[in-house]
């Protein structure tokens, strides 16, 4: 069957409140502030539109499926709680009520009578499923592209709307600027990518009074536009680059680079990216995208007061 989430995000919020009151009646005092912060993140994260987005991946036949929003939320919860194995996550959902609040647990069907087999979950054979898959291919077969679409739709664009990131390109700036014989830093005149060089000119050249002249008492060059220096970028790409080191553009790029290093540290160390043990690249893609989603969640500002706590403390 297709995943049809009639209750939407409010149904998820009601379920969280019900399960919290059932398993953690003293949650306000028994749960740590960091745990409440994680609960608050997912309480505010509306993924109900994901169920509609993923409908073309499901057949109209078969039992009622788990909602894709619940499954994605379970993976994100595992990342937040540093669970690096999906096998461990599956076991944890049965043992830890706190983690199981987000994806609802379903009890297996029991036989109705003595020595009677339980009702089968599958309504069609594997052959039927393959035939249905061949007849109704999903509109997008590349799983990584679907992961990107989910990440872009529910996280990246939201961060852009909140003005936490800019989708425009960043540039460079820095030192490595040559000095004239008088000791003054020369001014950037032009960048010549085809020739692979950067041109600097005399810093004292001016066009005031209608003529080009050098304002130095003793000019170091007889050239009309003063001394010019060309730096070949391939001689020292770290020092001579475009845009030049020390410029405002270079500083923007440098700041972006240090931000990227902090981002890599967040993924590799804090969220334990490399601790996972997966055999397929697809599983690594899933884990990486889940970590990136959690990074965006971390950046979104939470309300100063906790609405979840307020609702929880109200009479059930």
Write structural notes for this entry.
The structure is a single chain. This protein is mostly helical. Mean pLDDT is 76; it is low at 169-174. It has helices at 8-23, 27-30, 33-44, 48-53, 68-80, 86-95, 97-100, 126-135, 143-161, 248-270, 281-299, 307-313, and strands at residues 187-192, 197-201, 205-206, 213-214, 228-232.
Helices and strands in order, then pairings?
Blueprint: H1 8-23, H2 27-30, H3 33-44, H4 48-53, H5 68-80, H6 86-95, H7 97-100, H8 126-135, H9 143-161, E1 187-192, E2 197-201, E3 205-206, E4 213-214, E5 228-232, H10 248-270, H11 281-299, H12 307-313
Antiparallel strand pairs: 1-2, 2-5, 3-4
Helix pairs in contact: 5-11, 9-11
Strand content: 5-15%
What percentage of residues falls in helices of 4 or more residues? Answer: 40-55%
The low-confidence parts are 169-174
Q: Report the sheet with the most strands, covering strand number, pairing sense and barrel closure.
A: 3 strands, antiparallel
- Give the strand order of the largest sheet, numbering strands 1, 2, ... along the chain: 1-2-5
- Total count of helical runs of at least 4 residues: 12
Find the structural class using helix and strand composition.
mainly alpha
Q: Could you report the average pLDDT, rounded to the nearest whole number?
A: 76
* Gap from first CA to last CA: 33 Å
- The count of strands amounts to 5
Which outline best applies?
A: elongated
Radius of gyration: 30 Å
Secondary-structure element series? HHHHHHHHHEEEEEHHH
């Amino acid at each position: 069957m297709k995943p049809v989430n009639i209750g939407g995000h409010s149904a998820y919020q009601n379920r969280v409140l019900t399960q919290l009151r059932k398993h953690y009646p003293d949650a306000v005092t028994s749960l740590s502030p960091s745990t409440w912060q994680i609960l608050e993140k997912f309480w505010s994260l509306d993924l109900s539109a994901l169920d509609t987005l993923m409908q073309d991946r499901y057949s109209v036949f078969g039992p009622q499926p788990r909602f894709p929003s619940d499954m994605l939320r379970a993976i994100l919860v595992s990342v937040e709680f540093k669970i690096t194995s999906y096998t461990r996550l599956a076991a944890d959902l049965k043992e830890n009520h706190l983690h199981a609040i987000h994806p609802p647990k379903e009890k297996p069907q029991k036989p109705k009578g003595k020595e009677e087999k339980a009702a089968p979950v599958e309504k069609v054979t594997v052959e039927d499923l393959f035939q249905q898959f061949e007849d109704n291919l999903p509109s997008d077969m590349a799983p990584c592209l679907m992961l990107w679409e989910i990440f872009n739709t529910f996280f990246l664009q939201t961060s852009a709307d909140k003005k936490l990131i800019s989708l425009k390109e960043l540039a460079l700036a820095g030192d490595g600027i040559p000095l004239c014989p008088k000791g003054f830093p020369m001014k950037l005149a032009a960048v010549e990518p085809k020739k692979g060089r950067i041109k600097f000119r005399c810093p004292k050249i001016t066009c005031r009074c209608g003529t080009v002249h050098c304002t130095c008492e003793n000019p170091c060059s007889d050239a009309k536009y003063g001394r010019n220096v060309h730096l070949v970028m391939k001689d020292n790409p770290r020092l001579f680059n475009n845009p030049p080191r020390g410029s405002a553009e270079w500083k923007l790029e440098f700041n972006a680079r240090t931000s990227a290093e902090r981002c890599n540290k967040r993924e590799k160390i804090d969220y334990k990216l490399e601790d996972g043990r997966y055999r397929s690249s697809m599983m690594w893609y899933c884990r990486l995208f889940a970590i990136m989603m959690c990074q965006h969640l971390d950046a979104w500002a939470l309300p100063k007061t906790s609405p979840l706590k307020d609702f929880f403390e109200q009479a059930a």
